[in-house]
Specification:
mainly beta; binds calcium ion; Jelly Rolls; 7-stranded antiparallel sheet; 342 residues; 2 domains; 6-stranded antiparallel sheet
């Protein structure tokens, strides 16, 4: 007998006129639907927590959004996330669902979802079968350039008002071992999902039908290490590494400490003021204007610096250096030619 824990998230009262959306997840949702391969590509051989059979499905009655994630542990690090497979079921007549995948760091309270790492483009799953067995849908997310140094959470965010009666496959008798969290309503996928599974309505949760394939990053990938001078911008396309040279005698050179502000710019501070804004880098998309990315560099310090920007796609790179004893204040510079779009 088909049994869905379909009231998992429950109905939700509408939040009042608070603006929602942070400009990141929502703008990506507006991109064209991504490539999709529903032909039984189920990430088998990747990281799998389920036992291969599903005894239930979890969904939401929210008229806004649903979001459900499971923790994924690649085992060795750093790990680049290449592919995510999601098992969908349905109970209604609508058989196609569009969704994005949201990735969270496991840096929330007690190892729960904390910092949002990335949001994929929107994928469309068609021909979702009715019933509990469900079907996996494979999504190529390698373009996100997501490289992790510890376990992360991933799962779909979907418009549950538009897509009624869809469920993520749930394994309720396998070995399990990884926690899952869900969120629902206007902020699902924007704020960390904070309702842990198993819950009162899902007491038999063992695993979700969410699998991932990861790989070892290559030397071409940008591997972020914010405290040691390395930051990745634009989904890992631009690697920015840098040092600063202080005022002591003899001078001491140390890595910059980066703070990404959004995916297109980052500020750098020094060891004595890590979150201060001494240097700003910005990678602006001017592909439709000049066929290049514009790399901006601004400085608010008398210290010296040595900053290299590398395009991990084209291999183009450029280094900016500043002599600490130049006697001139930094001038904001913009490179409009080095970093070609293709
Ligand atoms: Ca099972
Ligand atoms: Ca639909």
């Amino acid at each position: 007998m088909i049994r869905f824990a379909c009231a998992l998230f429950g109905a939700l009262l509408l939040l009042t006129s608070t603006a929602y959306g942070d400009g990141l997840a929502e703008s990506k949702d507006l991109l064209p639907l991504g490539s999709y391969s529903p032909n039984k590509m189920d990430c088998a051989g990747g990281i799998q927590t389920d036992d291969g059979s599903f005894e239930n499905g979890y969904g939401t009655t929210s008229v806004f959004f649903g979001h459900i994630v499971m923790k994924v542990d690649p085992g060795s690090y750093p790990a680049k996330v290449d592919t995510v497979c999601t098992c969908w079921q349905r109970a209604g007549t609508d058989s196609s669902i569009d969704y994005s995948l949201v990735f969270w760091d496991s840096d929330g309270p007690g190892g729960s979802p904390g910092t949002r790492l990335a949001v994929s483009e929107t994928f469309l799953a068609t021909g979702v079968p009715s019933g509990l067995s469900g079907q996996f849908y494979q999504a190529d997310v390698s373009g996100l350039g997501l490289i992790v140094n510890r376990p992360f959470y991933v799962g779909p965010k979907w418009d549950s008002g538009d897509n009624d009666n869809f469920f993520v496959c749930a394994d309720e008798n396998g070995p399990g071992g990884q926690p899952a969290y869900f969120g629902h309503g206007l902020f699902a996928g924007i704020t960390p999902p904070d309702n842990v599974l198993p819950s009162v309505s899902t007491p038999n949760y063992r695993a979700l039908g969410i699998r991932a394939v990861t790989s070892e990053p290559t030397s071409a990938d940008c591997i972020e290490d914010l405290e040691n001078g390395m930051v990745c911008l634009r989904d890992g396309r631009f690697e920015i590494s840098g040092t600063w040279t202080d005022f002591s005698n003899p001078p001491v050179t140390q890595p910059l400490i980066w703070t990404p502000q959004e995916d297109i710019n980052a500020t750098a501070g020094f060891q004595n003021n890590p979150t201060g804004i001494q240097i700003v880098m910005r990678a602006a998309d001017a592909c439709s204007v000049t066929g290049t990315y514009w790399l901006w560099l601004g400085g608010f310090t008398d210290a010296g610096w040595d900053i290299t920007v590398r395009d991990t796609v084209t291999g183009n790179q450029r280094t900016w250096t500043r002599d600490r004893s130049s006697g001139n204040f930094p001038t904001t510079t913009r490179d409009t030619s080095t970093f070609t779009c293709n």
